[in-house]
Amino acid sequence: MATRAPDRPAAPPRPPGKRRRFNGRHWRYQADVKGSPYAYVAPFFLLFCAFGLFPLLYTAWVSLHEWTLLQDEHEFLGLDNFIAVVQDSYFWNATFNTLSIGFLSTAPQLLLAIWLAHLLNRPLRAQTLFRVTLLLPNVTSVVAVVVIFSQIFGRDFGLLNWVLSLFGAGEIDWRAGTGTSHIAISTMIMWRWTGYNALILLAAMQAVPRELYEAATIDGASNLTQLRKITIPMIRPTMIFVVITSTIGAMQIFAEPLLFGAYSVTGGQDRQYQTLALFIYENFARLDFGYASAISWMMFLFIIVIAGINFLLTSRTKGDLR
Amino acid sequence: MSTLPRRRVTRLVVPLIAASLLAACGGEDPAPSGGASASQPAEKVTLTVALFSDFHYAPLYEEFKKTHPNVTITERRSQFNDHHNNLVTQLATGAGAADVVAIEGGFIATFQQVPDKFYNLADYGLTSRQSEYLDWKWQLGLAADGKTLLGLGTDVGGLAMCYRPDLFKKAGLPTNRDEVSALWPTWDAYVETGKKFVAGGVKDAAFTDGPGEHFRAMVEQAPVGFYDASNNLVVATNPDVKKAFDMGVSMIQNKLSGKLTAFTPEWTTGIAKGTFATMVCPAWKTGVIKDQKPGEGTWDIAAVPGGGGNQGGTHLMAPKQGKHPKEAAELINFLTSKESQLTLWKDASALPSLPALYEDPAVSTYVNPYFGDAPIGKIFTDAAKALKPQHTGPKSGDVLLAMGNGLSRVELQNQAPEEAWAQAVADAEKIK
Amino acid sequence: MRAAKGMRLTYLTLLGVAFFTALPLYFSVVVASRDNAALAQVPPPMIPGGNFFENIGRVFETVPFALAMLNSVIVSGSIAVAVMFLSTLAGFAFAKLRFRGRQALLLITVATMMVPSLLGMIPLYMLMVKLEWTGSIYALIVPGLVNAFGVFFMTQYLSRALPTELLEAGRVDGCTTWGLVWHVVFPAARPAAAVLGMLTFMNAWNDYMWPLLVLTPENPTVQVALSTLAAGYVNDYVMGLAGTALGTLPLVLVFALLGKHIIGGIMQGAVKG
């Protein structure tokens, strides 16, 4: 993934003529330039090797077996679990739900986040207050979020149905339908993560040189034009970051549907809001570790594909200022 | 609370993260665990007890320590689902489980399949307790092989039918609990009563919450449930399961149901608001009702149709990871003893699983003013006594969920009953 | 005056967003200060009731909340500091230094974020058993010291915000790579690092599934302690929300008090960049 090559290679080597005289220093210099990049990325990879790689390989191994938790013998199946997953209609149902909830929550969330960050990226009174407010939803635990939103989206006593009834609309059973439950769950996710992403984008926007805006304002460019022509191109790397991490997060949605359904591992009577992660959890709760591992690996592949597509889409939208 | 010496050693050994990373990557064996326990006689013993809520055991621990001065007891509590899921992980990975664990009825089938993960309490002389217990409760504590004694029962969840006299009155039905019980000796009679309730024209209230719990109660009253004695899934062929499903469908078709799923927010608030007039009520649900503050006397308690029943109730087991099986077994024996169960009934309204206690005036004459002076001790123990043992299959919880989802599809999505049944059976048969 | 009108619109929009952001939170405090029946009222109650301190008292009676707070502060604090530091280093290397395998390593880093976290729990637990860290907060801190999210974030931020010319100038002045990190990279990274630290702290504070498995309720974090408030068969929403409010309040306070400094850091970085 060519996220972003450095604009220009840093650290041009010293003039070659001095090589012989400062031999000792040069050696140290070479070691510094060649070695330090590895030293700087090493902590991450060491930690990943210790705590990330082993679980990954272990589940890959498990996915090739008939592996029931608590049983000590595991029969080798080869790819049978994967074949079963691909033929399982509930797997595709969960995939659809994940994509649907993911799209419904991520797309508006990102647009809103850019817009909010843009609004906050200018001299305002009560800056701190607004920024802290943006973070509040993310400070709250997901359990509390779901309790509150379950009330809001309640069928009989919910805040939203009450407001709708003031406009003469009928009662909606948000949990029962596919579309309605997806909207309810997406709303929770949006509420929780929009401010978070806005803040990340804002941090990047702050690094855009002011002069660019001043020049554009003199040229009479409107606010929206400035956002489109200056801000977004200038913060593209961070945009890519936000799009990819949000995509990954959306593909792994788990706690919201589980708690929204009052611990229904099937995600509703018709699996209408069972996401992939919840589908894994269901098989996990049935102690079918082998099958759950196979689903996880499929999910892993999906995420790579979708994150890749999103990356391409995001980096395509050129209009570069440089 | 790190009384285990080896944990303290670890803390000293691993201040350097880098060192530990190498150990992890290189697969080096960890320091030998200081098995300081079993080797020394008359040593200090710490027992951990893992529960999924406050069982009100604290005074009993003090009592136990009087006869076991060398034992220290620490208690862990986790959320209901987390408690059981974590236990699975701990058993599967071989570490982290407490010395004594509580296992609720809905999860017990899972653990019955793996007797080798628990101490056989028969080895510690606890088989002697069999004669004290309700037969079905004792059976639940046995492993799938029918021999290994995994756990002893604590409480049971005798089944009743909770109802709202105010709504019954509006519908022109009797309100006195004995007359109400007489209305529904069978589930068919219960459905007929529901039809009368609907005809009575009560506004904004359904006859009952939803068909799921009724279906479950009816299946569990049958001699055979989802599995036969040799663990074959018989959902498709057992007429009693189909009968229960059809009863659920007829509840829906006659508009008796409020389309509510138990434990969703609409349901819990419905208890206070009176959006439904009856619900299947294990003993512990009285606590749920009280929490919603519907007001004293709003709910009353009558007998459950079909004669007897149980939902929930807990067993105490000793995972084999524990280092002190003897003490653990003694603690289990003590916590489930007649005296302890009577104390727990008084302190925590936990319904005893020992029939001898049902004659005790503290149980048999107890009336609860919150439920219109209902003799709840008698009602719930009668139901527990009347229940016949039924073989619980390995995945009965998952099968129940699949069947319940079928009924909900009929109710919430107008799926044709035959279709819902076929899909539910197919789902159940997919469960390995 | 188009500009003034635009500003008024901005304030109105932001106030609207702030309102909808705060409303559910406010409502959760309302419920936490009443009883379970508050969730059943139509229209819902909007004024806090009188039970807040009683409910908080129940929380303190039920769980070792002070210890949980201490553990959470230690865990979240050390993770946040480590993530800020190590991610900046790695992000700098990925964004501005040339070395063999850079692209591949960055790709791997991003890919590691995509591993479904739910499934890694059992093998990770096995690992902790081997290390004898179950029940100890090491099991939370050490795996969290640096993460792909932070590395990727700093890489993307620094690739634009850190002028290559500045680095070249530093080299000409005879700076070692570490010298560059100290004098050029850290100052430029400050705004993003502040945000990253804040977000990391919050995530660590709210982490739930893993601590629940690997810690015991005797030595909990706030989230683990809160989970034990459950009443058995049915969750006690009010107590849960009261506990959540109690667990959240310190965070809100920290942000409110340090907010100026964090925001200040952001502004300062902006001027320099």
Automatic annotation (TrEMBL), chain A:
<feature type="transmembrane region" description="Helical">
    <location>
        <begin position="132"/>
        <end position="153"/>
    </location>
</feature>
<dbReference type="InterPro" id="IPR000515">
    <property type="entry name" value="MetI-like"/>
</dbReference>
<comment type="similarity">
    <text>Belongs to the binding-protein-dependent transport system permease family.</text>
</comment>
<dbReference type="InterPro" id="IPR051393">
    <property type="entry name" value="ABC_transporter_permease"/>
</dbReference>
<feature type="region of interest" description="Disordered">
    <location>
        <begin position="1"/>
        <end position="22"/>
    </location>
</feature>
<protein>
    <submittedName>
        <fullName>Sugar ABC transporter permease</fullName>
    </submittedName>
</protein>
<feature type="transmembrane region" description="Helical">
    <location>
        <begin position="183"/>
        <end position="204"/>
    </location>
</feature>
<keyword id="KW-1133">Transmembrane helix</keyword>
<feature type="transmembrane region" description="Helical">
    <location>
        <begin position="289"/>
        <end position="313"/>
    </location>
</feature>
<dbReference type="GO" id="GO:0005886">
    <property type="term" value="C:plasma membrane"/>
</dbReference>
<feature type="transmembrane region" description="Helical">
    <location>
        <begin position="99"/>
        <end position="120"/>
    </location>
</feature>
<dbReference type="Pfam" id="PF00528">
    <property type="entry name" value="BPD_transp_1"/>
</dbReference>
<keyword id="KW-0813">Transport</keyword>
<feature type="domain" description="ABC transmembrane type-1">
    <location>
        <begin position="95"/>
        <end position="310"/>
    </location>
</feature>
<keyword id="KW-1003">Cell membrane</keyword>
From TrEMBL, chain B:
<dbReference type="InterPro" id="IPR006059">
    <property type="entry name" value="SBP"/>
</dbReference>
<keyword id="KW-0732">Signal</keyword>
<dbReference type="InterPro" id="IPR050490">
    <property type="entry name" value="Bact_solute-bd_prot1"/>
</dbReference>
<feature type="signal peptide">
    <location>
        <begin position="1"/>
        <end position="23"/>
    </location>
</feature>
<dbReference type="Pfam" id="PF13416">
    <property type="entry name" value="SBP_bac_8"/>
</dbReference>
<protein>
    <submittedName>
        <fullName>ABC transporter substrate-binding protein</fullName>
    </submittedName>
</protein>
From TrEMBL, chain C:
<feature type="transmembrane region" description="Helical">
    <location>
        <begin position="180"/>
        <end position="205"/>
    </location>
</feature>
<dbReference type="InterPro" id="IPR000515">
    <property type="entry name" value="MetI-like"/>
</dbReference>
<comment type="similarity">
    <text>Belongs to the binding-protein-dependent transport system permease family.</text>
</comment>
<dbReference type="Pfam" id="PF00528">
    <property type="entry name" value="BPD_transp_1"/>
</dbReference>
<keyword id="KW-1003">Cell membrane</keyword>
<keyword id="KW-1133">Transmembrane helix</keyword>
<keyword id="KW-0813">Transport</keyword>
<feature type="transmembrane region" description="Helical">
    <location>
        <begin position="104"/>
        <end position="125"/>
    </location>
</feature>
<feature type="transmembrane region" description="Helical">
    <location>
        <begin position="64"/>
        <end position="92"/>
    </location>
</feature>
<feature type="transmembrane region" description="Helical">
    <location>
        <begin position="237"/>
        <end position="258"/>
    </location>
</feature>
<keyword id="KW-0812">Transmembrane</keyword>
<feature type="domain" description="ABC transmembrane type-1">
    <location>
        <begin position="69"/>
        <end position="258"/>
    </location>
</feature>
<keyword id="KW-0472">Membrane</keyword>
<dbReference type="GO" id="GO:0005886">
    <property type="term" value="C:plasma membrane"/>
</dbReference>
<protein>
    <submittedName>
        <fullName>Sugar ABC transporter permease</fullName>
    </submittedName>
</protein>
